[in-house]
Amino acid sequence: MTTPKEILNKAITNEKDFRYEFTDFVRKLEKESKAGSYIARFKKVILSWLKFNDIRLQLTVNISGENETPTIVNERVPSKEELARILRKATSRGRVAIAIMAFSGLRPESLGDYEGTDGLRLGDLKELKLSDEIQFDKMPVKVMVKSKLSKARHQYFSFIGEEGATYIKEYLEERRKQGEELTYESPLLQFDVRGTKKNAFLRTTLVTRDIREAIENSGLKMRPYVLRAYFSTALDIAESKGLISHPWRQFIMGHKGDIEARYSTNKRLPPSVIEEMREAYKKSTKFLETRHDELDEDNALLYLQQQLLSAVGYKLEEIDKMDLTDISNDDFQKLLRNKVAGAMASNGSKQRLVPMNEIEKLLGEGYEFQAVLPNGKAIMKMPF
After folding, report:
1. Per mean pLDDT, which of 13-22, 94-103, 282-291, 297-306 is the most reliable?
2. Would you say 118 and 207 are in contact if contact means Cβ atoms under 8 Å apart?
3. How many other C-beta atoms lie within 10 A of the C-beta of residue 71?
4. Does 257 score more than 70 pLDDT?
5. Which of 14, 123, 188, 227 could bridge across to 101 with cysteines, CB 3.0–4.6 Å?
6. How far is CA 87 from CA 17, 213, 235, in A?
7. Of all helices (H) and strands (E), which one includes residue 381?
8. Closest to 46 (Cα-Cα) out of 23, 69, 68
9. Does 281 have pLDDT greater than 60?
10. Cα–Cα distance between 287 and 236 in angstroms, integer?
11. How far apart are CA 366 and CA 384, in angstroms?
12. What's the mean pLDDT in 32-58?
């Protein structure tokens, strides 16, 4: 093994031999089938070390596949169902880390830096309230990323919705039960109480270890960093549907752009802009959160029921007083039949219940279509 000091001595005393030795080293790694991008890291580190010591040297050796990344070239973004499985297989701490990456787009280095000296704190969740009960004042929750935890070295913020906030709340309640006194300076991700605490915060390697274990336990083969790609892909879809603007999407991804420049210059965005960004993110959560599909299905059913009740003659104030969340199909159809029967009685014989296959014929005879009932029949208004 060659030490850093020996590298300097060889580069200074015999530059030509140093180049030959490095070329031999590269060819050796290539014969071992190492990826070109992996080998190129050695070149980058050596040149950086030499430059740090005021040694200017060129290493012009060609590295096969230097710009290729075979480990991720075929990597795909997990589906919602796969992300849900990963979350189920995670520890409570790992679940929070996964949610912050997949739902807020933060890098693992923002949760805990490489040396374990800094990371995301509870105070960085701006709507979190630590009282007798752990709660959030507003949804989605604003997640602040300080400049020294940002890859681009600028301060920015993202958001996290109901699902992610639920995982955070459950994790913090668990820590309280274990006797921890939570403050706004406390790390979001804390060490296991049974373990040895060597640093103030979890190091990046421990953050990604939690995530990697959850992915492996779910039967998938993906890098932890793919969760940020999941977030980016979901926002791409939201942007294509006009739910969030491109500058706002770039900003909450931690990229530099127009919004970042304005935020850095003015130190703070106007509250109205932040609230508009919060609302845009909220609309985008249907492409992010794993629980959202079920909620959307329930809302769609409720909307359909309300429309059917309105079609058969119920007034809006009547519908608002009904509790349709737990109503059975039989009871709902009874509501429809009662209203139709009452309407037909009051209108004499002005309305008819007919099979669906007779609608076209009756329309040609002057009947007017009214509504379709859940039993498969249609209400038609007679032409007189």
Report:
1. 94-103
2. no
3. 11
4. no
5. 227
6. 53, 11, 20
7. strand 377-381
8. 23
9. yes
10. 10
11. 9
12. 81
Q: Average model confidence (pLDDT) for the chain?
A: 81
For residue 75, give both structure tokens: 């990597």
Given a cut of 70, whether residue 168 has pLDDT beyond it is yes
In the numeric block, which tokens belong to residue 115?
């040396």
Query: Is the pLDDT at 54 greater than 90, yes or no?
Result: no
What is the rounded distance in angstroms from the CA atom of residue 289 to the CA atom of residue 98? 12
| Domain range 80-286, its CATH number among 1.10.8, 3.40.1130, 2.60.40, 1.10.443 | 1.10.443
User: Where are the chain's structural domains?
Assistant: 1-72, 80-286, 294-381
Asked if 127 and 142 touch (Cβ cutoff 8 Å), the reply is: yes
Residue 163 has pLDDT above 50, yes or no: yes
Tally of CA atoms within 13 A in the half-sphere of 342 that contains its CB: 9
Query: Alpha-carbon distance 38 to 271, whole Å?
Result: 46
DSSP string, 129-176: EESSSEEESSSSEEEEE-GGGSTTS--EEEEE-HHHHHHHHHHHHHHH
DSSP per residue over 359-374, as a string? Answer: HHHHHHTT-EEEEE-T
How many residues are recorded in the chain?
Answer: 384
Whether 377 contacts 336, CB under 8 Å: no
Please tell me whether residue 353 adopts helix, strand or coil conformation: strand
**Dist. CA 84–CA 236, nearest whole Å:** 20
What pTM value is reported for the model? 0.63
Closest C-alpha to 141, from 277, 299, 286, 290: 277
What's the mean pLDDT in 12-35? 82
Is 347 a residue whose pLDDT tops 90? no
Most confident of 197-201, 244-248, 316-320: 244-248
- 78 and 220 Cβ atoms separated by less than 8 Å: yes
| Strand 134-136 relative to strand 368-372, pairing | unpaired
What spatial distance separates the first Cα and last Cα of the chain, rounded to whole Å?
100
| HSE of 165, CA atoms in CB hemisphere, 13 A | 21
Contact between 113 and 201 under an 8 Å Cβ cutoff? The reply is yes
- Which of 191-195, 212-216, 279-283 is the least confident region? 191-195
Prior bond to 140 cis, omega within 30? Answer: yes
Angle at 229 between CA 224 and CA 186, to 5 degrees: 55
